[in-house]
Amino acid sequence: MYSVLITDDEPTIREGLRNLIEWEKYGFQVADVASNSREALQKFKQYAPNLLIMDIRMPGMSGLELIQALRNYSDIPFHVLILSGYADFAYAKKAINLHIAGYLLKPVDEEELTEHLIQLKTVLDAERSDKLRADMHEGSKKELLVKSLLASGDQVEAGHYQADAETAELVWDGYEIVLITLQGRNRREIDSAGRTMFKQACSQRFDDAERGISFWMEPYFCLMLKENLHHPLTKKKIYEELSALAQAHDMTFAAASGGSFKQLHEIALSYEKAAKLLDLRFFYAADQLITDDFAPVGIPVQHENEEPLNAASIVDKLYFAIKIGQEEVVEKLVSDWGQTLIEKGYSEESIKLQFTKLITLVRGRLLESGPEIEVRKQPLSEGILEIYKQSPYDSLKRYVIQLLNGFMPSEGNASMEIHMKKMIDLIERNSHENLKLDTLADVFNYNSAYLGKVFKKTTGEYFNTFVDKVRIRKAKELLNQGVKVAQVAEKVGFANVDYFYSKFRKYEGVSPSSFRKK
Length: 518
Hints:
Order of helices and strands: EHEHEHEHEHHEHEEHEHHHHHHHHHHHHH
CATH topology of the largest domain: Alpha-Beta Plaits
GO molecular function: DNA-binding transcription factor activity; sequence-specific DNA binding
Distance between the termini: 24 Å
Number of domains: 4
Strand content: 5-15%
Helix content: 55-70%
Shape: flat
Oligomer: single chain
Protein name: Response regulator transcription factor
Structural class: alpha/beta
CATH architecture of the largest domain: 2-Layer Sandwich
Domain HTH araC/xylS-type: 421-518
Domain Response regulatory: 3-121
Strand order of the largest sheet: 2-1-3-4-5
Main location: cytoplasm
Number of strands: 9
């Protein structure tokens, strides 16, 4: 959608234009309105609209003076439609040197306005395509040089690339490599479309803002940033930005930084450090950018040095703890066992294997103990598969604890039914919020994978699908009340109108606009 700012000192004109047509139908969205030129100047800086529709005569700064001020202020292209009365038309012709897209006589005719919008959308689409091609060409030069330096490792001499670096505008104060691994929902591999969308989103966030460059260099997605990530707040900010981008595309990720270096040819060192840290991501706490400033929960040694452990004692203790419903004891036993494995130098895969054996042994004991144990209702194969999907270590530990607690007698599980009812009620009443399964898992103190399975079993829907359907149901109610499509999207919790259109069509088979006209 292209954004529009309407400026007129008459309230009836401003609001009349806002509601005159269905802007989304023509590819536009009214970002805001302004009552005078100075207010318009402020809101232009806030919204950077693609199209301004403004009165040519206003108190204080005139429309022409405003256009000139905006041209001087911004290098970003924008288009203008002038509003004028018959008496102002000769005056409006003076605006021809300011590259005005067209004139609209008051009172504005709906058909005339839509004709202008159709023409402008064609122009804006072409401008966007031209900019994309230019950006891709410019970006490819930078990317090729950086990839070449990374492939050459530490064998590059400083002077050999200087001219190329200056041509590609890569002479910065510092360089820091951040490596990212991405997975789709349920830890599936990302397809080519997903890779492209994530790259485009990162390019807008980092490349277009001249904060660095982003590119794929298998097996990682890479960022080379200008900013030094040494400060904790800077690390947190970068992680939150990456998290928002990943969540917007239904992805999970881990990221590590190799530290900042002064010379471009040293980026291979930053890359190497980041890759080593990322290989050990299982042993670092979740929800952070991994750097060498943070201590891992443990570092594995070589596989052949792993000491054999006797699990009989902990199996006995877990068996009795589950029999009497002691969740706190189960949590402590699992935590202690995991810490022992880490201190003994067990690798990620070996730790998961040991937990798998532990659960299998405990379940075997419980199956022999009597019918009151819930273990008979638990399909072990699904639980074991989920163990191997858990990362980092803290997530694995939490999942194992919840899996074992799920074996407790039925009175110990009664609270889950209550949690499901609370969770469904929370979604119904807060569907407009940014709801995520991971967030609710923390709220209810459950592993997100486990909570997602229970939610699916309770409702018959995956969490995201359930939230989507609640939002669409509420959107239909608002559309039936005559609320504008863009307002409906915002009210029910969709990030933007285009995404709302795609979801609505997916579940209802028609667009929101068509549904409202029924």
